[in-house]
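Worked Example 4.2. Consider the chain below.
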Amino acid sequence: MNDWPRRDEAQKILDEWVNNKNLKKHAYAVEAAMRAYASKLGGDPERWGVVGLLHDFDYEKYPDLENHPFKGIAYLKEKGYSDELIQGILAHAEHAGVNRDTDLKKAIYAVDELTGLIVAVALMRPSKKIADVTVESVMKKWKEKAFAAGVDRQMIETGVRELGTPLEEHIGTVLKAMQGIAEKLGL
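Applying the procedure from the previous section yields the following structure tokens:
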């Protein structure tokens, strides 16, 4: 067995564990954003994309902090996947206590919550199309704390600070990646 699942293997894992179509769309959004960051930071887009695709694969079955992402991690360890993959997935969860000491870990932490905010902004557009979302429209909603209140803006701010990327540039990177898979996201 390969120590890192190929994209098609990761998709099979996602399909086995996740039925909720919105959770799958979230996985695809984070995957796209992670691929974009890999290209930007000199990482491997395939590997970084798999981290994004699988970061929440156990969430539907185990949505509580005691079990997520630890149940999924146990499954991946049982399958013999690498510690780099494991640590990358753990890095998206603050409560996992992982030191974000690589660009991959910093990126997953920074992009996870932002994808949800961008989807919320897209759904507020009259067209409900992500193509109509701009960095400026996301920044406007960013400042409205009641809008998409479940999005942890502090987590995103910490992530961009760790990446050394300005917030607007970060939003632009993630937005462009998500716009590239608009059909898959249904937006």
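The chain has ten helices and no strands. Residues 103-124 form the longest helix (22 residues). Compare this with Example 4.1 before moving on.
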